[in-house]
Each structure stands twice: as structure tokens, then as C-alpha cells.
Design a protein that fits this description.
The complex is a heterodimer of chains A (55) and B (249).
Chain A (H helix, E strand, L loop, with lengths): L2 H7 L4 H40 L2
Chain B lengths: L1 H8 L2 H33 L13 H28 L2 H33 L7 H22 L3 H15 L2 H11 L19 H33 L4 H8 L5
The chains are: A mainly alpha (55), B mainly alpha (249).
């Protein structure tokens, strides 16, 4: 087996190891993206408030 | 000097602008630490003589577990500061740490379960370690739910502060569970008053990942706290100036 294949094979434990890393990756990306998207929504709402009070 | 810094942090625009300057650095360092930790753990560390390559789940599982405890202790300490000294930034750190703390706890439980299946032959067992960590997840979710259930946000902050402080008794229980009770989960390898009983080539990436996770926590709590502050202070001059002269910073 060449080294890349060996790496992905993880000694037979590929499913366990890579699913763990994948779940972690999804969790971390969500944790960062979620507040960033919330920030965009907030920005729009606050812009709206500022424009309403300064016509 | 530390008290003066904490006092300055109490000013929302100071906190916001300081975090704006810090975030790029924190993000760069965080990515670098993850890269080093993952390379060390997935490539450099040798396979375990009993567990083979499955042990590499440790680099996700253990830092997540450590952070699940660390974040809760930060929340409990913030709770004390919020209740006794009514420090608003403590209230903000508390509630905005809960989500990422719950994520770390969930990750520890799920990756532990995935690791347990090939190693222990079971996805779950009600031993003291797993049960107390599951309880920690319920505490985190309870804090989030309690806060959103109370409309008056000052009252909500007091309620979650109390819940965070009361729940902190679970932290030493989780940590010492593997010593106080007979558990399927193994005993302490690193966090004990002795030399770590793990190969250095396996240990170093683990410590690097733990620091990487800490930076991730800092980044997430800052991102959430900033949103919280922007909304609380939406009618203030400093927020208005953020959205008028420069287009959304």
C-alpha cells in the first residue's frame, strides 16, 4: 500500500478516525460561521434603526 | 493592573475595538496551531501498540473534553463576578461561552463514543466519567435555554450565573470520576501529579491541539460577545459611528 493510502486507511480504523475529525470540522466551522452570519443580520437591522431615526 | 484592565473591558467600545484588533492575530495563531497539532498527531506520532491508528481520535476527543471543563470554569468565574460585582462584561462572557462550551462537550461525548466502539466494544456505558460529562452537556444546554426563556436580560444573567456556579460542582466530579469510581474510561494520563504516562511524540501534538482549541474558544466567544454588545448598544453613538462612516467593520 502506498503511504497516502496507508494514511487514509488508518490501520483499518478509517471510519472511526475520519468521522471523528469530520464531525469536529463541521462543529468548528459552524461555531465560526454562525456568529459571522448573525453579525451580518445585526448590521442590517442596526442600519435600519439608524436610518429610521435619521431620515 | 489586571483589575484596571478588566475595568477598561467594561467599556463596550473599548472591548469591541480591542477585539477587532486581536481577532486577526488570534485567527492566524489558531490556524497555525491546528496545522502543527494535526500534522504531529496524524503523521508524526507513531501508532499505538494496542490501539493502532484508532488512538488518533485522541487529538479531537481529549482537547474537546479539557475545553468542556475549562469553558465551564470560565463561565462559573464570570458568574461570580456578575453576581457579586455586577460586572456586565462578565455577564456577556458567561452567556456567549455557553454555545461553544456545549459544542466541545458534545464533541467529547461523540468522539469518545466513536472511539469506544472499536476499543471497548460499546458506544456507551453509564460509568461515572461518561455520565458526569453528559450531565455537563445538560448544564450547558440548560444555561442556554434558561437565558433565552427569561425576557428581562438582567434577570436572565443573574439566573444563568447562579446555574453556572451551582453546576461547577460537576467539574471536579468529572475530573476525579476515574479515580473515585471504577470506570470503563481509563484513568488520568496527563492531568495528574506525576510524569505523564504517554509517549512524548504522542503528547506534544495533544498539548498543541489543546492550545489550538483554547484559541478557537477565545475567537468564538469574542465573535459572539461582539454581536451581543452591538445589539445591547445599538442606540449608542459608538455603534452608530461603526455603521455610518465605515461600511460595517
Amino acid at each position: 500500500m502506498d503511504t497516502f493510502q496507508q494514511f487514509f486507511h488508518m490501520g483499518g480504523y478509517a471510519a472511526y478516525v475520519w468521522s471523528s475529525y469530520a464531525i469536529a470540522l463541521v462543529a468548528f466551522i459552524w461555531s465560526i460561521v454562525s456568529p459571522l452570519r448573525e453579525k451580518n443580520k445585526l448590521a442590517k437591522r442596526i442600519q435600519g434603526i439608524i436610518e429610521n431615526e435619521n431620515p | 493592573m489586571i483589575m484596571r484592565f478588566i475595568y477598561k473591558l467594561g467599556s463596550p467600545p473599548y472591548f469591541y475595538h480591542l477585539s477587532s484588533r486581536l481577532l486577526p492575530w488570534l485567527s492566524g495563531i489558531c490556524l497555525l496551531l491546528f496545522a502543527i497539532g494535526l500534522y504531529g498527531g496524524l503523521v508524526l506520532a507513531p501508532a499505538d501498540y494496542q490501539q493502532g491508528d484508532s488512538f488518533r481520535i485522541i487529538y479531537i476527543h481529549v482537547p474537546a473534553a479539557w475545553l468542556s471543563l475549562f469553558v465551564y470554569m470560565v463561565m462559573a468565574a464570570s458568574g461570580v463576578m456578575a453576581l457579586i460585582w455586577r460586572i456586565k462584561i462578565a455577564e456577556i462572557v458567561l452567556i456567549n461561552s455557553a454555545h461553544i462550551g456545549a459544542v466541545f462537550t458534545f464533541l467529547a461525548l461523540v468522539t469518545g463514543s466513536i472511539w469506544g466502539k472499536p476499543m471497548w466494544g460499546t458506544w456507551w456505558v453509564w460509568d461515572a466519567r461518561l455520565t458526569s460529562e453528559l450531565l455537563l452537556l445538560f448544564l450547558y444546554l440548560g444555561i442556554i435555554a434558561l437565558h433565552s426563556a427569561i425576557d428581562d436580560k438582567r434577570k436572565a444573567a443573574r439566573a444563568v450565573a447562579i446555574l453556572a456556579i451551582v453546576g461547577v460542582v460537576n467539574i471536579p466530579i468529572i475530573h476525579y470520576s476515574v479515580e473515585w469510581w471504577s470506570t470503563l474510561h481509563q484513568g488520568p494520563t496527563v492531568t495528574k501529579f506525576d510524569k505523564p504516562s504517554i509517549d512524548t511524540r504522542m503528547l506534544v501534538p495533544l498539548l498543541v491541539m489543546a492550545v489550538a482549541y483554547k484559541f478557537l474558544y477565545a475567537i468564538v466567544v469574542l465573535l459572539r460577545a461582539r454581536n451581543d454588545l452591538l445589539w445591547r448598544e445599538r442606540r449608542s453613538q459608538w455603534v452608530a459611528s461603526l455603521f455610518t462612516d465605515t461600511k460595517s467593520k
